[in-house]
Every structure is written in C-alpha cells, then in structure tokens.
Amino acid sequence: MFQRHFHAQDTDLIIASHPKTGTTWLKSLLFVIVNRFKHPKNGSPLLKHHPHELVYRLENGVYGEAFEYPRPQHLKELPSPRLFNTHLPYNSLPESILSSGCRVLYISRNPLDTVVSFYYFILDGMRKILHEEEFINTSLEDFFEDFYNGRNTNGPFFEHVIGYWKASLEHPDKLLFLKYEDLKKDPVSHVKKLAEFVGVPFSPQEESEGVIQDIIQLCSIKNLKELEVNKSGVFNKYFDKKSYFRKGEVGDGAHQLAPNMVERMNKLMQEKLDGTGLSF
Ligand code: A3P
After folding, report:
1. What is the pLDDT of residues 32-59, one digit of tens each?
2. Which of 87, 131, 160, 255 is catalytic?
3. Which of 97, 105, 141, 144 is the most exposed place for a label (fewest CB within 10 A)?
4. 3-class SS at 270?
5. CA–CA gap between residue 211 and residue 195 (Å, rounded)
6. Which helix (H) or strand (E) element contains residue 178?
C-alpha cells in the first residue's frame, strides 16, 4: 500500500534503517533539529510525545493498521518538511522517494549490537502480539541463527545496509549514511552534519549559545528514558513505549553473545562488506 500510494514531496525527510539500529534516536534528533525555531527551549514536543508519535512510520504506521497515526489522506496537511521513517530495503522504496528531491537519512549499526537489541525488544516489548510461549522459548541463540542466515523482518541485515551504503556513495546529496557508533563517539559533529544535510545549519550564534549540546542532551537516552511519556503505556495497541529505550550502548552484543557467535558474525561481516569500503 505504502509502496503503491505514497507520493514523496521534494521537502520530505525520510529516515531509513534496519530495525534496532538507532531509529528512535535519529527521529528525536531530526525532529528537534528541524523544528528548533518553532518551540521554546523547554517546550519541545519531544518532552510530551514518544519519538515514534512525532515521526511517522510509513509502511505500517501511516499505511498500515496503526490507527493512532494520521491516515494517508491527512498526509498533505502535515507541516513541511514532513518527517517519516521506513524499514524497507533501498530497492523496495517507492519510486517517488527515489525520483523526488526528498532526502533520506539512513542509520546503521554493528550487527552484534543490532541482533541483541532486536531479541530483547521482541522479548520485552511485543509480548502482546506474540504467542508468548512460542517466543519466550526462542533463545537468543536461535534468534541469532535466524538473523545470521538472513531470516529476518525487513530482509537480511547486510543486504539492507549495503543497499543504502552504495546508494549514499552514488547520491551523496540525496542520502546521508550514518553509523550509530559514530553518533555515540562524536555527537556534536554528527548533529552539525545532520542539520547541514537537511538544509538548516546551525548559525555561529547558535553554536556559541550551546544549542547543539542542548539538543544532544534533550535527545540522550538517559533523558528520554526518564520522561513520563516514554516510561509507560503502549502505542498502536501493541508496542510498549519504554521498550524502545534499553541500554543504548556500543559493544553490548559482543558481551551477550557466546564467543563463537561473535566470531562467526564478524567473519560473515568481513565477507559481506569486503570491497565496499564500509566497516563496523
Ligand atoms: P539497545 O537495545 O542496544 O539498548 P531502534 O530505535 O532502531 O528501534 O533501536 C533501538 C536501540 O536504540 C536500542 O538499543 C535503544 O536502547 C537505542 N536507543 C533508543 N534511544 C536512544 C537514544 N536516545 N540514544 C542512544 N540510543 C538509543
């Protein structure tokens, strides 16, 4: 439905990602960067709304069953620039996203951290839609095997990442490729990069007033996790709001997985990324 009916506008900003790679964080940052002139410093909608209620997911938010989102007919009423996200692989994006002037921001993450994050998200956050017994009996080891073999929602992990990586090299003005680990390591330069990419760079005055640091602090997992709006409740019937904020660390995967799993995944990563210029 989304693939057939969505018409991207030139001003749209679309976050793309494989699940559990930092989508919620990027949504928060992008929303605040883009809307920073509309709201007073302490009045950000991010303080009252879960990030997923501020940036709509296209495939099963706007065009799916999730009735809390605006319906497609309301999309034209959204203020510009419209912010959306998708987990679809690059080669499944609707034609209008590729041919219009809209920009795409892709976030990627180390597969070890991604698979562990994914497992706990499903285990803790989606109990309501799972046949509990069935999933609870799925071990991290079994989940890892599926992920490793590319049996995964939204398609195999490496193909997802490489699809967007190659597109970002071919169309650097259209697609910005980010890594969760880089954002963690150097948030200031990445927030600046983000703002420049979407056409709202920080002025020297904003920089000297510490606006970038304020945004980073507002969107930090530590801050978002403690907000009432993110602590309890569900949205779209099923999703526990708090399950989107777990540890937010780099390297958690390697600690949680057995050494032989880490070794196998690293080997697969080497093979898959060989010659691409990309590494984690
Ligand atoms: P962990 O499970 O490793 O903690 P997504 O948003 O794509 O679903 O990804 C979820 C992952 O991003 C989770 O990782 C979550 O804790 C982390 N995350 C959520 N908000 C974050 C933030 N503001 N800063 C850093 N990481 C964040």
Report:
1. 999 999 988 789 999 999 999 899 888 8
2. 87
3. 141
4. helix
5. 12
6. strand 175-179
